[in-house]
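Exercise 7. Given the components listed, write out the predicted structure of the assembled complex. Treat all entries as one system.
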Amino acid sequence: MARIIGGIGTSHVPTIAMAFDKGRQKDPDWQPLFKGYEPVAKWLAEKKPDVLFFCFNDHATTFFFDHYPTFALGVAEEYAIADEGLGIRKIPPLKGHAGLARHIAKSLVADEFDLTIFQDLPLDHGLHSPLTMMWPTKPDWPGAVIPLVVNVLQHPLPTPRRCFKLGKAIRKAIEAYPEDLKVAMVGTGGLSHQMIGERAGFNDEAWDLEFLELIDRDPERLAEMTIEEFMRRGGNEGAEVIMWLIMRGALDERAKKVHQNYYLPMTTAMAVALFE
Amino acid sequence: MSYVFDLERSAKGLRLNRFLHSLTDAKRRKLFLENPEEAMKDLSDQEKDMVRRLDWKAMQDYGASFFCLEKLARAKGVSNPQMVAHFRGESLEEFLKTRRVPGAR
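Answer.
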């Protein structure tokens, strides 16, 4: 049977991909970020999950507001890399796991999560800016991804509670898949940042550190919060951390945080955390 | 003023956001850079004017999604810290002084 071996929470800031692509690993401005991902990359290299289940958001790249899904699950064998305005990153196309993804789709709909299903669409930095920090691209990706695209752009957003419940339903679906697969959950986004309005540039390190504690010890507290509270405490765009709750909901309740890194160089607090 | 991108703002900004989003297509981007008036022909005069002036704040107030504005910024070589500084009413240099690692961009 398939099983979930752990989870990763990570920011998906586009400049992470830029720093990676420009080879800034040793640059003192970026080294604290790269160092923070090393234990996660090592864990993945040792545990060798077959699939990373990625909870992330598209940035009005592939999905546009003429029809905007709340939760959209990718069920394809392969995903192209999206052009976000600067051309396409020079990384291999992403491998999907259609069998497991289709099974999850059926299981979630049976569990009353009425998802949008997509295939043959390119994916943006929301997924692959953190991915290149954790998985090698050469000679090819070592495994497959299943993308779950979450609306955190156009309000109304799904509630934190709904995200947490969806995570639990994803766990149930994965554990019922007959093939012997190792799956790691990835929840992306945040931490505190606001890109718009007079409060653009807002951060709150105290809230970020509290969030990193609560997602480990008391995710139920986070699930009780409203989107408005998340926006007030973490900035308008910082509310996207609700996607970590999907990841956390899919983990064993006894899972513990075993690594954490926090770096706030510019406009967005960049964090990574590992749970097993 | 609330900057939450809700269904009302999304409806108001739809035509402008559609244009901004179209810049993810390399052919549309090339057309915009070489012949901006042709690329913007479906926009209203007010929308064209805001795009020509790269007035990030005016476009935001009008109903542009930040994530659609990013597509125009990338096409024109403008960084996110430059946009954020503009929203705050600061120069890039003033904004960078408020950051912990001004070189990380």
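Discussion: Chain B touches chain A at residues 1, 3-7, 10, 14, 17-18, 21, 23-26, 29, 60, 65-68, 70-75, 80-81, 83-84, 87-89, 95, 98-105 (CB under 8 Å). Chain B has a mean pLDDT of 95.
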